[in-house]
Design brief:
Layout: H1 11-14, E1 20-22, E2 24-26, E3 29-31, E4 36-41, E5 46-52, H2 56-73, H3 78-94, H4 96-107, H5 111-131, E6 138-140, E7 147-155, E8 158-162, H6 170-181, E9 185-189, H7 195-211, E10 219-222, H8 226-234, E11 240-244, H9 247-259, E12 263-267, E13 272-276, H10 282-294, E14 304-310, H11 314-325, H12 346-361, E15 365-368, E16 383-386, E17 402-408, H13 411-418, E18 423-424, E19 426-430, H14 434-440, E20 450-453, E21 465-466, E22 469-470, E23 477-478, E24 487-495
Parallel strand pairs: 1-5, 8-9, 8-11, 9-10, 11-12, 13-14, 13-19, 14-17, 16-17, 19-20
Antiparallel strand pairs: 2-3, 2-10, 4-5, 6-7, 7-24, 15-16, 18-22, 21-23
Helix pairs in contact: 3-5, 3-7, 4-5, 4-7, 5-6, 8-9, 10-11
Subunit structure: Homotetramer.
Protein name: aldehyde dehydrogenase (NAD(+))
Active site: 267
Length: 509
């Protein structure tokens, strides 16, 4: 196994990983009775380690234990639950750099992004600790004498979290940190292609539960494919399933969960646009577009995929952008100075090639890039394309470093182009004019869940609710009042008198 022979990969052992790893954390025990899969390094497509995935029998055993553990966890006071999450955050701090390196090695994003992703979970833990003392209900004036009416929030029970390869642990944090302080147990199915991250993260969380003499089943984890995900979606013991991934699969998950009257929280595809107005700070815009379009090799849901340039500054911005694209250093994501790592899998590279063919067939002009880089890994060139906003390929999400550039004349036209795609996750405009800014964030502006001004489409902060509209799924994770999705609301009316107002005048003998 490559990862255990190279000196620079010795950190894998420090995370408790071995050449072959059981991929199910069931009732506090590691096991695996499903298929054996290999985790590969996208830089060279060599095997890092093997994982024994969960079988459906493992799944059922884990869910039974989780249901029992939930009864214990939900009765622990919320601030005490917050203390456990605080300890999880501290345990993650102790392995920040090792986990960050693992994210870069297994997923392919550059090391600063890998470390930043793990830091995001740590930040979510801190956020959740404070939240654990603020799960407030409300008192509502009753229209009846000697009555009190109030809203009470209680845990749902078990929250299922299905995460994607591109943010293999941060998305878990957005969901699990909040779900845990709200009194829910968590069942995590990590992405099939990043099982080592699922195992390493779970080992850290499990150690905190064990140290506090809590059932390990409070946090249950499965490495596995569609079979496990389908079981989770259909499981009536799971009131809420949070799914991050493609619109196609998300729709199938939603339909399966709806069939049993469960709730789904969907974070699906993005097709995000940056608009650059004629009064914009062009240098700021160019840096932002580069960061948003090339980061994570274009494999973020918030990646900038469409660049809308006012006709008066179109060529100026495009020329500067081409120049900075030429300076992007492509290579091993673990090496210092690399700005663009590989795509995650060889299938991703094939999709890139197919996408470029579709672009050309629909009248797109490749301005720079557009080719696969010959290597053992999954490297492609960062690509800029001039294309019509009405081209069918522009309406789709090509998960790679491909940026569509198009021209507009008026703000109205730019907003219409921004809103013309099925997805509605993130958007941004670069301008100095207040009247444009307030129209952009208002009811006839962007139709996305994230509406930025003078910053990129990516880089959302945990304090705000993260998510999008339309085919992005409508879910919201992390900050604001997103915690309410992980709890059930009860309206409670209490009669502290001796009369029942509706029964006055009736003799009950």
């Amino acid at each position: 196994m490559v990862g255990f022979t190279k000196k620079e990969h010795q950190f894998l052992s420090e995370l408790g990983l071995t050449p072959r790893n059981p991929g199910s954390f069931v009732n506090g025990i590691w096991k695996g009775n499903g298929p054996v899969v290999s985790s590969s390094n996208p830089t060279n497509n060599q095997v890092i380690a093997e994982v024994v995935e969960a079988s459906l029998e493992d799944y059922e055993e884990g869910m039974k234990a989780c249901a029992e553990a939930t009864r214990i966890w939900m009765q622990i006071p919320a601030p005490k639950r917050g203390e456990i999450v605080r300890q999880i955050g501290d345990a993650l701090r102790g392995k920040l750099h090792e986990l960050g390196r693992l994210v870069s090695l297994e997923m392919g994003k550059i090391l600063p992004e890998g470390i930043g992703e793990v830091q995001e979970i740590i930040d979510m833990c801190d956020y959740a600790v404070g939240l654990s003392r603020q799960l407030n209900g409300s008192i509502i004036p009753s229209e009846r004498p000697n009555h009190m009416m109030m809203e009470v929030w209680n845990p749902l029970g078990i929250v299922g979290v299905i995460t994607a390869f591109n943010f293999p642990c941060a998305v878990l944090g957005w969901n699990a940190c909040i779900a845990l302080v709200c009194g829910n147990s968590v069942v995590w199915k990590g992405a099939p292609t990043t099982p080592l991250i699922t195992i390493a993260m779970t080992k850290i969380i499990a150690s905190v539960l064990e140290k506090n003499n809590l059932p390990g089943a409070i946090f249950t984890a499965f490495c596995g494919g569609a079979e496990v995900g389908q079981a989770l979606a259909a499981d009536t013991r799971v009131p809420l399933v949070s799914f991050t991934g493609s619109t196609k699969v998300g729709l199938a998950v939603q339909q399966k969960v709806n069939e049993r009257f469960g709730k789904s929280l969907l974070e699906l595809s993005g097709n995000n646009a940056i608009i650059v107005m004629d009064d914009a700070d062009i240098q700021l815009a160019v840096r932002s577009v580069l960061f948003a379009a090339v980061g994570t090799a274009g494999q973020r849901c918030t990646t900038c995929r469409r660049l809308l340039l006012h006709e008066s500054i179109y060529q100026t911005v495009l020329d500067q952008l081409i120049e900075v694209y030429k300076q992007v250093r492509i290579g091993d994501p673990l090496e210092k100075g690399t700005l663009l790592g590989p795509l995650h899998t060889s299938a991703s590279k094939e999709n890139f090639v197919k996408g470029i063919q579709a672009i050309k067939s629909q009248g797109g002009k490749i301005v720079t890039g557009g080719a696969v880089i010959e290597s053992e890994g999954n490297f492609v060139q960062p690509t800029i394309v001039e294309i019509s906003p009405s081209a069918p390929v522009v309406k789709e999400e090509l998960f790679g470093p491909v940026l569509y550039v198009m021209k507009f004349q008026t703000l109205k036209e730019a907003i219409e182009i921004n809103n013309s795609v099925p997805q509605g996750l993130s958007s941004s405009i670069f301008t100095r004019r207040p009247e444009i800014i307030f129209k952009w964030i208002g009811p006839v502006g962007s139709d996305c869940g994230i509406v930025n001004v003078n910053i990129p489409t990516n880089g959302a902060e945990i304090g705000g609710a993260f998510g999008g509209e339309k085919a992005t799924g409508g879910g919201r994770e992390a900050g604001s009042d997103s915690w309410k999705q992980y709890m059930r609301r009860a309206t409670c009316t209490i009669n502290y008198g001796s009369e029942l107002p509706l029964a006055q005048g009736i003799n009950f003998g």
